[in-house]
Design goal:
Elements: H1 3-12, E1 20-26, H2 38-59, E2 65-67, H3 71-79, H4 82-94, E3 97-99, H5 114-130, E4 139-146, H6 152-158, E5 163-168, H7 191-199, E6 203-207, E7 213-218, E8 231-235, E9 242-245, H8 249-263, E10 271-276, H9 287-302, E11 304-308, H10 311-319, E12 327-328, H11 344-379, H12 381-389, H13 402-427, E13 444-448, E14 451-455, E15 460-464, E16 470-476, E17 479-483, E18 490-496, E19 512-517, E20 526-530, E21 533-542, E22 545-554, E23 557-566, E24 572-582, E25 587-591, E26 594-598, E27 609-611, E28 614-618, E29 625-630, E30 634-639, E31 648-654, E32 678-685
Helix pairs in contact: 1-10, 5-12, 11-12, 11-13, 12-13
Length: about 700
């Protein structure tokens, strides 16, 4: 063993003879505002959780309790007495109230921008420093995020983290979330199968497409695997709590035996991790005493030493055996896919808030130099905190019920937007931008029966009124880009039994079935000329709901801008379908932290992938290509089953939660429409 590993073992009281060590990390997962508002969560659970944790740490000097994010720690700090503040500061600085990350929240890393994620981690660390807490976590634990960016190692290393942990990855079984037997997991061809069956290791070195590496642990048996260590029943989670204390020596030994049985086959090092910490669970009374009794009575026969420690302690112990760990380029997606596009209005406001904050900072710096920028930064501190909080995996994801969205999330965003608006008005130049000399005129438009032709210097685009107003063809000079492959921007409605988190095809017994297409009914096309271009407008109906489509073309750019406004029918998803006529082998798209190449499918059929800004597909034979650029986070699927002849379709997916009132998992609650449109632009390029 290395000297660092030896010193950690000595500090934790692990005997030199112990060949197998079971590390219990204890925490509690605190969602700022998922099913309830943060105020309700704090009053009902968090205050009591932290009161009990502080008392337990003071009573048991060898005990460690983890805090996963700063949001509720700050609320507790601001509302507790001075003597309790001093106790918290002391425990944090001693490393016994152990931070498993410096983030304001446990962020989603698929939908927010990279800037938003990095600021999240920075703001939490700066809050600790301002309040005299010197702990600087070297790891970031993503307790319950629904998948992770495949470029997460690059993001973490940029912020100074070299270790991480994740839970929800594609293909895994998660208790009470899957409507079938755990024996059908891990799913074939997924990250879970790779780690559990091929590598047989929950610890690995995660190397991303940029070459960045972090040491990572996967909680394959959930982030609350050890919650019932001293209890009988089903769960201690606040939503379905059914647990009776059971503290006998026999019960504890049986629980530990089961944990070891699960973990030992997938632990390449002498160390196994058993996390304690489902949602809003309280600390286990006298945890150290229970583990000490187990070690006295059972370690001599089992050879397993049980210890309470921090998550970072566990990873530091594993680090000493790094040479036996697999090195994996992990893309732990798709886990759930419905949240990629649920509540688009919320997503759009979260994204634009960060963009406007950055714009305000730059404007202040240009207008008044560093001193003015610092003043504006202080004025915008609350807005940045709201922006960081919106990264949470139940905020920007759109997975909270209407009551929480209306009572807390939207008011927070509105307050932050008002702060930013004042800074922008003060520091950004007013008035229209000059168009410059020699700006090209608008494209030429002509009608041929039921078709509208728009001729730009870049391409000829044909719209068909008898196909619902969709684009019928796009021709580049000298070749056909899209011609004869069907409506290019058709709207398709699917009957979908999924919800805010997932789609109907994701679970056993779910429904995902096409119900209507905009191209099935003729429409009237209107042409409007403005801003040096033309806009083609049409209104279609899908399952009784109207959808407005706008397509804008100009001689200034080869990009084709598309906008869809509407509300999907209840229980449906609506997609924008773009048949490309290309033979596609992979999808290239951006993700927070980098650009990733993904296969067309991974287990789900269809497979929707999360997209930050763009996706590009290229024909494997002649190099022709298509790029879709989104104005907000979205999802894309490329499915060969839609082919005509040898071609394939690229489909830009927009979740029914964009517009439709749907179940959010509680009686009487729904994901009310927020009236936001789909916005994307299309670019095509010729063969090599």
């Amino acid at each position: 063993m290395t000297s660092s590993v030896e010193s950690i073992r000595q500090r934790l009281g692990i005997p030199a003879s112990a060949q197998r060590v079971l590390v219990f990390t204890e925490s509690s997962h605190w969602d700022p505002n998922w099913m309830l508002t943060s105020e309700v969560y704090f009053d009902r659970f968090v205050r009591r959780n932290l009161d009990q944790a502080v008392a337990a740490l003071q009573r048991e000097p060898r005990r460690v309790y983890g805090v996963e994010c700063i949001f509720f720690l700050r609320m507790y700090w601001e509302r507790c007495a001075d003597n309790q503040r001093e106790a918290v500061r002391t425990l944090v600085n001693e490393g016994r109230l152990r931070l498993t990350g410096s983030g304001v929240t446990t962020a989603d890393t698929l939908l927010p921008s990279a800037e938003a994620i990095l600021r999240d981690w920075l703001l939490g660390q700066e809050w600790l420093r301002r309040n005299g807490m010197t702990q600087e976590p070297g790891l970031m634990v993503f307790t319950d995020s629904f998948g992770s960016s495949p470029a997460l190692p690059s993001l973490l290393r940029a912020a100074g983290f070299d270790r991480t942990a994740i839970t929800r990855i594609d293909g895994m079984y998660f208790m009470a979330c899957d409507l079938e037997s755990s024996k059908r997991f891990p799913r074939p061809g997924t990250s879970a199968e790779e780690l559990l069956k091929n590598e047989r290791s929950l610890d690995f070195v995660w190397r991303d497409m940029n070459g960045a590496e972090v040491l990572c642990h996967w909680n394959a048996f959930s982030y609350g695997q050890g919650d019932m260590l001293a209890f009988r029943g089903l769960s201690r989670v606040y939503l379905v709590r059914f647990a009776i204390p059971a503290r006998s020596d026999r019960h504890i030994a049986r629980r530990i035996g089961q944990y070891v049985k699960d973990l030992a086959p997938v632990s390449r090092t002498p160390y196994m991790l058993c996390p304690i910490g489902f949602d809003f669970v309280e600390p286990i009374p006298d945890l150290i005493e229970l583990l000490d009794r187990y070690n006295r009575n059972h370690y001599p026969t089992t050879g397993v030493w049980a210890v309470n420690a921090g998550f970072d302690d566990y990873l530091a112990l594993v680090e000493g055996h790094r040479e036996v760990l697999p090195v994996i380029a992990l893309d732990p997606n798709p886990y759930w896919t419905g949240f990629y596009t649920a509540r688009p209005g919320l997503k759009q406001r979260c994204r634009e808030l960060v963009d406007d904050l950055l714009l305000a900072e730059r404007g202040a710096l240009r207008a008044g130099g560093l001193s003015r920028a610092e003043t504006v930064a202080a004025d915008l501190a609350d807005a940045w905190w709201a922006a960081a909080t919106s990264n949470h995996h139940d905020f920007i994801t759109g997975t909270s019920p209407d009551s929480v969205v209306d009572e807390e999330q939207l008011p927070w965003l509105a307050h932050a937007e008002a702060l930013v608006e004042g800074a922008l008005l003060q520091h950004m130049p007013a008035g229209p931008l000059p168009e410059g000399n020699g700006a090209p005129g608008p494209p030429d438009c002509s009608r041929q029966g039921e078709r509208l032709l728009v001729q730009t210097v870049h391409h000829t685009v044909t719209f068909a009124e008898n196909a619902g107003g969709a684009i019928d063809s796009i021709r580049l000079p000298g070749e056909e880009a899209f011609d004869g492959w069907g409506p290019v921007n058709d709207l398709i409605s699917y009957r979908d039994s999924g919800g805010l988190w997932r789609m109907g095809y994701e679970f056993r017994g779910g429904t995902w079935r096409e119900s209507a297409r905009a191209s099935e009914r003729p429409v009237h096309l209107e042409v409007q000329e403005h801003a040096g271009g033309v806009e083609v407008v049409s209104t279609s109906e899908l399952d009784g709901e109207p959808f407005l489509r706008r397509v804008w073309l100009s001689n200034r750019t080869p990009l084709i801008w598309c906008r869809v406004e509407g509300r999907a029918p209840e229980g449906h998803s609506v997609t924008v379908r773009i048949p490309s006529g290309l033979t596609v082998g992979r999808l290239v798209m951006d993700t927070p932290g980098g650009v990733v190449a993904r296969p067309l499918g991974r287990y789900y059929d269809p497979t929707f992938w999360p997209v930050e800004h763009f996706v590009h597909v290229r024909d494997k034979n002649d190099g022709r290509g298509l790029a879709l650029m989104l104005a907000m986070p979205g999802a894309v699927s490329c499915a060969p089953r839609w082919q005509r002849g040898a071609g394939r379709d690229a489909q830009c997916h927009e979740r029914d939660g964009l517009w439709v009132h749907r179940s959010a998992g509680q009686p009487g609650e729904g994901a009310r429409a927020d009236g936001v449109c789909v916005r994307l632009c299309v670019a095509v390029h010729p063969a090599r």
